[in-house]
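Bench notes, afternoon.
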Amino acid sequence: MTIDWSGVFPALMTEFKQDESLDLEATARHIESCLGAGCEGLVMLGTLGENSSLAPEEKEAVLRCAVETAAGRIPVLSGVAEYTTELGIAHAKRAERAGCAGLMALPCMVYEQDEREALAHFETLAAASDLPIMIYNNPVSYKVDLSPEAFLKLAKSETIVAVKESSHDSRRITDMFNVCGDRYVLFCGVDDLVLENLLFGAAGWVAGLVNAFPREAVALYRLAKEGRVEEAVALYRWFMPLLHLDVDKKLVQFIKLANQIAGEGAEWVRRPRLPLVGDERERIAAIVETAIAGRPSV
């Protein structure tokens, strides 16, 4: 299966109102902002989309909103982050009904699979859906690390076409090319490793802080891909304190607060998450406000 996925794909936030109900109008506005900045795809219902906090019908409503807003201008992918393989298949069907162009598949939630179980999950999901699939490899969060050799085993599943590499090891991109060749389209999935990953051959970036700073994220991607390394490094150094927010366990709250300060969204989350308060809120706000004060022209 051939795809043309590349560029910056926001792992888009799901917007809520203060009472924790869905705010689809705000979600659509945020999508338009990312489109206007030059983003080339969307990943809905990932970690930042608070997938596991939504009911099935809410997930489908979010996906329909994204597909209708994007209106064919860029591909819309849906995260698949369910408790069992069968529930994952059911969500893939929802994504198909909503008109999504692809899936970003995670290991099953809660239970920590080993490699054999994770491979079986992904193979079964791929066999049950015609949509192209990006595998999200994040051993830090999901406690199973698919090695390049494991991805060779998945190569027979033709609809598995891309990998969001989030092992926090910048060497992994090169190892993937050395073992798997060009079998997969590789995306960086760790914000504060993105420049390294792009320079080593990643075709795209599934990004967190693009939510709050979409123009700067797209500019960084383009500078890297054009080989303008000195300019890319300068922008990366400005961006780095923000990008570090993507790798904390409270990344959703951190980035939603950044969105609010930057005028891209609201800080409201759904319980058990709570908005930031006290010293923690002041610390994150200071990082964002300092970045805005020194914001480069892009």
